[in-house]
């Protein structure tokens, strides 16, 4: 028997939350939007891709999706980026549907591997942020002693989302699925 769902149902919410670790920790960005990874048209600014990149925030584990035809994507050094030439790119793909995952913070330099495309603006610099989890403010021993326990009338208060793991969400969603079965 299929279980019907609505976007507002608890079942749907639990399914989304069970994927929470993936949803919260990374994003996929489609380079160039619906046009894809193409040579900018003469009327467009040759900084089109850098302008796009500056309007987004990238972090480790985010991915870029490059869609293109008869072209390629290369990750190169800063020097190769400036020259629009790479004899030994750090990354190369020409499959028309390239996904590139950021594995570290810092600067990434992308260019087209087709001769002349980079010179006409098909290149981009992306800064990947070094995001560290926010640490709670330091507390003295007196503050800890004065804190009330996290229970009211013997029932635990809400659990902060920062300590809920994917496995916990999976168990919760499995429980909810059993309720609807």
UniProtKB/TrEMBL annotation:
Residue ranges occupied by any Phytocyanin domain in the UniProt entry: 27-130
Presence of the UniProt keyword Transcription in the record: no
SUPFAM superfamilies xrefs: Cupredoxins (SSF49503)
Example of a GO MF term: electron transfer activity
Main location group: membrane
Gene Ontology CC: one annotated term: plasma membrane
The name this protein goes by in its record: Phytocyanin domain-containing protein
InterPro entries, alphabetized: Cupredoxin (IPR008972), ENL_dom (IPR041846), Phytocyanin-like (IPR039391), Phytocyanin_dom (IPR003245)
Record field: transmembrane: 158-180
Family under the similarity heading: Belongs to the early nodulin-like (ENODL) family.
Subcellular location: Cell membrane
């Amino acid at each position: 028997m299929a279980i019907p769902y609505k976007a507002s149902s608890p079942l749907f919410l639990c399914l989304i939350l069970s994927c929470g670790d993936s949803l919260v920790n990374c994003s996929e960005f489609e380079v160039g939007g619906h046009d894809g990874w193409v040579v900018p048209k003469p009327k467009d600014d040759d900084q089109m891709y850098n302008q796009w990149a500056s309007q987004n925030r990238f972090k480790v584990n985010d991915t870029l999706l490059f869609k293109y035809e008869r072209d390629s994507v290369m990750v190169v050094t800063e020097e190769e980026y400036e020259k629009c030439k790479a004899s030994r790119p750090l990354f190369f793909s020409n499959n028309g549907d390239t996904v590139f995952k950021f594995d570290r913070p810092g600067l990434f330099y992308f260019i087209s591997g087709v001769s002349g495309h980079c010179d006409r603006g098909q290149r981009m610099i992306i800064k990947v942020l070094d995001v560290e989890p926010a640490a709670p403010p330091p507390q003295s021993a007196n503050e800890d002693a004065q804190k009330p326990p996290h229970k009211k009338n013997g029932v635990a208060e809400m659990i902060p989302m920062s300590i809920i793991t994917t496995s916990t969400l999976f168990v919760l969603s499995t429980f909810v699925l059993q309720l609807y079965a």
